[in-house]
Design a protein that fits this description.
138 residues; alpha+beta; S-adenosylmethionine decarboxylase; six-stranded antiparallel β-sheet; 3 helices; 6 strands
Length: 138
């Protein structure tokens, strides 16, 4: 895991864009856009990442397509964090993608700690690292 650094301090990332650390949490619970924004902010603080601009959100369905819910995207200087939530299914995905390694277990622990406050149920985690060895010639 990368060493802890103060927020907003510049970091040198070797081979930027040549590796990606990804964690996807599938979480049972009803999440509003306001709570999603608070949750994403808490995740950024927990893994020492920084906002790379203002967040954006979209609600669904659109033209009768998609589930009933929203997608909330927060760019971070390291890549992005997304909450994709379905009110009708009382479930959401929390995607974290970063060029820097981060501790997904710290995020899982945080979700467990926030379970009562956010009304969360079960949590599943899928994580991976994509690196130079995964590239193929086109």
């Amino acid at each position: 895991m990368a060493a802890s650094m103060p927020m907003n301090e510049a970091r040198t990332i070797p081979d930027l864009g040549r590796q990606m650390h990804v964690a996807v949490f599938i979480v049972e619970g009803l999440l509003s856009q306001v709570k999603a924004a608070r949750l994403v902010k808490a995740v950024m603080e927990r893994i020492n990442m920084n906002a790379g601009g203002p967040p954006a959100a979209w609600t669904f369905p659109v033209n009768g397509r998609g589930g009933v819910g929203f997608t909330f995207v927060q760019p971070i200087t390291e890549s992005f964090i997304v909450v994709d939530a379905w009110r009708d299914r009382k479930t959401f995905y929390l995607f974290i993608a970063s060029c820097l390694e981060f501790d997904s277990d710290r995020v899982r622990t945080m979700l467990v700690e926030l379970a009562a406050e956010y009304g969360l149920g079960r949590i599943a985690l899928v994580k991976t690292r994509i690196g130079e060895e995964d590239f193929e010639r086109c």
